[in-house]
Amino acid sequence: MNGTDGGREGDGDAVADVDRSPRSAADVCVVGAGPAGALVAARLAERGHDVVVLEAGPRFDPDDRLDRMERSIRPAGDGGSVWGTGGPRDAYTSAGERFYPLNATRVKGVGGSTLHWQGMVMRLHEADFERRTRDGVGEDWPISYGDLRPYYAEAEAELGVAGASDDPFGPPREEPHPMPAFPPSHSDSLFAEACERVGVTTHSAGNARNSERRDGRSACVGYGTCQPVCPSGAKYTAERHVARAEAAGARVLDRVPVQRLEHDEAGERVTVARYATPDGEEHEQAARAFVLAAGGVESPRLLLLSDSETYPDGLANGSGAVGRYFMEHLFAGMGGTLDRPTRQNHVGFVTTESHQFYDDPGAGAEGTDGAVPAADGDLGPIKLELLNYAGPSPVEMALSAETWGDELLDRLRDGYGNHVAMGALVGQLPRAENRIELDPSTTDDHGNPVPEVNWRLDDRTRRTLQRANEIQRAVLEALGVEIEWSVGPEDTGPAAHHMGTTRMGTDPATSVVDPELRTHDLSNLWIPSSGAFVTGGAMNPTLTIAALALRAVDSMDEQLRRS
């Protein structure tokens, strides 16, 4: 199936007014200006290195955020088109058991996925790094939670995370979150008694948005449109670190999609990134070190496009693992109506979660009023969320109604403001057949084969989704909800978390990057990305991406100073 999903809009700087020629000599060339690329660029530039960032998409004007918000909430609007995703530039195909809606879940531009993300940030658990040892499935990471722990703390400070540090099921931490947590929403307070009655323990959710003024950005003012756009700037976007990188001397070019990476005659080092400009020209950016930070789909695609006589199956692909082991987080949900006001849609993000079933998803939960029964069988981790924005908006209801006047008013009064729901994320194990490949039958606006997503679910994931639904039903029934809908296990969808496609390992025969995020095959190429994830857990991945990027910076800085 082909996926173009609409067309692009003309955002960013005027094409003719921007110099997009290469810098004559750079220490580091970073491909991608999302969270990983921006963090790396800022840190390395601030340490005195000459950095160039090449971003395929435009630089968006912050003054347009209110307009984007208004477009996103119009009933005829399309959240993806708010950021210009689609058209030949973003063409892709989907193969395998399930269609993968890639363009509904990504943004190309300065800021990357953080332009439209929900902003939820949690650390992976200790067990996530030891899945083979603990559960006999998947693979172990070559690093432990302890190795990444100090970088998690740095990442929380860099992104600006609000949280209460009150998760009794979470991994150990020595420091509190940088900002206090957001208070529980009104709907969270409705859930509290029901969760207690069935034995489900809740706690605050970590959010990369300001609960108080910080770093020149306001506290959250409650627009409630976090996805796809935060008009106030309270939610973190990687634009913040792009600005820091530029302030330290880095050069950031937008609208310059990299066409391929080229290496030296020995096949040991990347020498240039070849990129295209809007005027139809191509340029080569040379550097001493290269950072591929284009995400879990475009990073493997660029490696596959950069094949050569030395690397006939794609650059850095001596293992054959580039593009393979694609993992996602799947959604399970359930909701309905309550006989009291719930203040739905007043908050655009999750403020309360439960990680009680993360490390032991089959455990029961005994409460004073019924119980969540224990479950047998091989299950993956489950992250439960109390959703604050379930149900239609009154505008949607009015425009879809077939009635007018007092009858319509009665319908709005009876049908709006009493919806509640629970969500959950569950993870997939890495499977070689789930992969990103090139599809030469479809090309992008530069004539390159587009990415093809081969994706399917396995029985373990389906069982875990069913388990999440069981827990959700127990809580909702205890709350007295008239359940009207559920998602999972067969009608599940992806969470837009692209993991595993440039996996980390110590064996060059089975992995792409080493524990420092440097490729086994080329000594000056790093890939700090969710693609490095060996297993995906069930936590939103951006905080771990940021922690890995900060870890990679130390490795790159050391090598640059030695050479």
From TrEMBL:
InterPro entries membership: 4Fe4S_Fe-S-bd, FAD-dep_OxRdtase, FAD/NAD-bd_sf, GMC_OxRdtase_N, GMC_OxRtase_C, MIP_CS, P2Ox-like
Presence of keyword Metal-binding: no
UniProt cross-references to Gene3D superfamilies, sorted A to Z: FAD/NAD(P)-binding domain
Keywords: FAD, Flavoprotein, Oxidoreductase
CC cofactor: FAD
Region (Disordered): 1-24
Composition bias, Basic and acidic residues: 1-22
One MF term in the entry's GO annotations: flavin adenine dinucleotide binding
Family matches, as SUPFAM superfamilies: FAD-linked reductases, C-terminal domain, FAD/NAD(P)-binding domain
Domain 4Fe-4S ferredoxin-type: 210-240
One Pfam family here: DAO
Family statement drawn from the similarity comment of this UniProt entry: Belongs to the GMC oxidoreductase family.
Record's protein name: GMC family oxidoreductase
Natural source organism: Halorarum salinum
